[in-house]
Amino acid sequence: MTAIDLSPRLSHRLVRLYTGLTLYGLAISLQIRSTLGGSPWDVFHQGLAVHFGLSVGTWVIIVGAAVMVVWIPLKQKPGLGTISNVFLVGLACDAGLWLLPSPDVWPLQWLYLVSGILLLAFASVLYIGAKLGPGPRDGIMTGLVRLGLSVRLARFLIEITVLSIGWLLGGTAGIGTLLFALAIGPLVQQFSRKFPLS
């Protein structure tokens, strides 16, 4: 009886997880195509692609896998959502970059940027709410918090580091990066009211 009761709930969580991760990757591609600047991690991924070759999505996968190695000393444990995040976000990002034309006028650039940030916030609420494991990059933050850093300091140190390296490698940082930083927290909170995280 218990197994039957849990099955629909698990199915719902899996749908939520994989929908969220796919939309997350598409959101990244929208922000990159806007050319107005993406999130710190995506500036990093883009910088790696510009400097070393390979696609942005491939670097999302490579960095995600590499970051999980850092989990070992931080004593973090991956879940199905963590492993799925490593691969699916990168694949969806590359698919979006392949499908989306580059906007050539600023109103379309802003439409891409704003749509990407909104979609990323919504996607975050979906996949985090599935509770099947944090994303690999989130795991670094939670690991540092367990070592005694505040959430704010841990997140700041991580994001300023990857942003700086990504920008130096040729990633696009700009007004979109600033807008992302200011808007993502409130947007996730707003979406979580409609799609609770618990």
Q: Topology as H/E string? A: HHHHHHHH
**How does the helix and strand content classify structurally?**
mainly alpha
- Chain-averaged pLDDT: 88
- Care to count the β-strands? 0
Helical percent range? Answer: over 70%
Radius of gyration: 17 Å
Beta-strand content estimate: under 5%
Rounded to the nearest angstrom, the distance between the terminal CA atoms is 23 Å
Explain the overall architecture.
The protein is mostly helical and 198 residues long. It is 80% helix and 0% strand. The chain is built from 8 helices and no strands. The chain has helices at 2-34, 40-52, 56-74, 80-99, 106-129, 136-146, 151-169, 175-194.
List the helices and strands and how they pair.
Elements: H1 2-34, H2 40-52, H3 56-74, H4 80-99, H5 106-129, H6 136-146, H7 151-169, H8 175-194
Helix pairs in contact: 1-4, 1-5, 2-3, 2-7, 3-4, 3-6, 5-8, 6-7
List keywords for this structure.
disordered N terminus, globular, 198 residues, mainly alpha, 80% helix, 8 helices, 0% strand
A few lines on this structure:
With 198 residues, this protein is mainly α.
